[in-house]
Every structure is written in structure tokens, then in C-alpha cells.
Amino acid sequence: MSLAVRVIPCLDVDAGRVVKGVNFENLRDAGDPVELARRYNAAGADEITFLDVTASTSDRATTYDVVTRTAEEVFIPLTVGGGVRTVEDVDRLLRTGADKVSVNTAAVARPEVITEITRRFGSQVLVLSLDARRTEDPGCASGYEVTTHGGRRGTGIDAVAWCREASERGVGEILLNSIDADGTREGFDLEMIRDVRAVTRVPLIASGGAGEPEHFPPAVAAGADAVLAASLFHFGPDDMLARVKDALRQAGHTVRWPRRPRPAPAP
Fold first, then answer.
1. pTM of the model
2. Quick check: 145 and 154 in contact, CB under 8 A?
3. How far apart are CA 131 and CA 251, in angstroms?
4. What is the DSSP letter of 5?
5. CA 116, CA 196: separation in Å to the nearest integer?
6. Which of 9, 67, 83, 118 has a 20 to 30 A CA-CA distance from 53?
7. Biggest alpha carbon–alpha carbon distance for the chain
8. Has 12 been annotated as catalytic?
9. Separation in Å, CA 54 to CA 19, 76, 158, 220, 253
């Protein structure tokens, strides 16, 4: 029996509010993270990802109080990232209520942090969050470059090669986000998903570009084990999670069907 495809709403948080833009620019308010997490939990999300999108840029710690309040409201796995630099940061987030922790900028700056975290907590705790964009830089043979600081800084590092290295160092999952597709709602970067899938066997989460339920099955066919979206869920109909899972199911993929609400007790 194949594993169920996970459908994951993403909460990009800035100063305690969920925000969303296009290509990481022109951010607009999407609501309270705790309320959105509660809503997605009830609607049948398989996990929730919480990313403090300006933590690395502004050199401040992740908003621990928001993470705590979010964790108290959801009963599905919660991944938290943004400003995570050390083993101690991971320890604090796990104690705060996170189930998994993602790293991006810190791992690029010092890849050894991957080994340090996984040795202490296990690979299942660590997600590599990778923001990649297309490039003509000859140093990036795959045609994709790793970016950091919320997509604001290029690195000259080949994104596909980095995924291979991070896998070898022990990350448990890779959250692969296309900067070019992010927020456009024109579909996932299927070529990038296929290229990364070819070099790693760790679970791969596709992110960036989802605009309608029909965009999700091709991402899974390209090699994604899970699919993540933000604006589609934040600004779409209340039943969008169910629509996405239905599209996946009709395409032949296994999903965990949203829980049916319990009937109200008889008066």
C-alpha cells in the first residue's frame, strides 16, 4: 500500500501575522496564525508548516509565543522554521510545541549544523527548507540556485547538489520551494521537483505556485511526497483542502480523507 500524500498549509508569519506575497514581495496580511491553524486542523490538513519569514533577515529569534499558542490549537504535526541557527534553537522549539524544525540560512552558512541537530534529535526532526530560483550562473549546473534570507540573497550554490549533500548529511525531509513560482498560482515547478527527486530518496515537499486543485497531482507525479501551499488555502474557499485531496484521489494518489465533523448531540 502506498503512503498517503500529505497536504500541508503553510503559515508564513511576520511580526505575529500570516502574510503572503508574490515571489516573496508585496506581502499582504492573511490573518492570525493561531486562528488559521485551528481552521486547517479542523478541515483535515495533514500537517501545518509555520515559517517566520523575516527571522533570518532581521536577525531575531522565531516568535516562540505564537508557536506555543499554535501548537496548543492543533493536533497534527507542526513544523517550525525561521531564525533556527543552533541545536539549542531546535531544543527550544521542540519544547515549545513543534514536532519538526526546518533550517535554511543557517545550514547553508554552516552545513555541519545538520549533523549536529540530527545526532541529537534524529533525522525525523529536521527539515531542510530550500528556496531555489532559476539561474544562468555557470556554477549552478542544474540551472537552480540556493537563496537565503527569505529568497532575498543568492548564494551561487547549486540547489540540486545542495539537496544531495543535505540528504547525505542526514536531513529527514526537504521542503523545496520555487522562488520563481511562489505566490504566482500558476503551478509548481515540475522540472525542479523531478531534478531534486533524482538525487535524493528522503521525503520531498513541493512548494511554490499552487493556484488550483489540479496543480497538485502533477507535483506528486513528478516526485513529491507531500504538497504545500499558502495563498490558495488562505484566500480560497473554505473547502479548498477537501478539493485538493479530492483532486489527488481522483488522479490515483492515496490521501487521508478529511475527518467528517461529529454530529451534534441530540437535545
1. 0.89
2. yes
3. 28
4. B
5. 24
6. 118
7. 70
8. yes
9. 11, 25, 23, 29, 35
At 261, is the pLDDT very low, low, confident or very high (cuts 50, 70, 90)?
very low
List the catalytic residue out of 46, 52, 89, 131.
Answer: 131
Helices (H), ranges, the chain:
33-43, 64-73, 87-96, 105-109, 112-121, 159-169, 190-197, 216-221, 231-235, 240-250
Q: Does the active-site annotation cover 195?
A: no
Beta bridge partners of 76: none
**Alpha carbon distance 100, 173 (integer Å):** 10
Q: How far apart are CA 27 and CA 236, in angstroms?
A: 17
For residue 212, give the amino acid letter. E
pLDDT in tens, 92-131: 999 999 999 999 999 999 999 999 999 999 999 999 999 9
Q: How many residues does the chain have?
A: 267
Strands 173-178 and 204-207, sheet pairing: parallel
Q: 133-181: per-residue pLDDT in tens?
A: 999 999 999 999 999 876 778 999 999 999 999 999 999 999 999 999 9
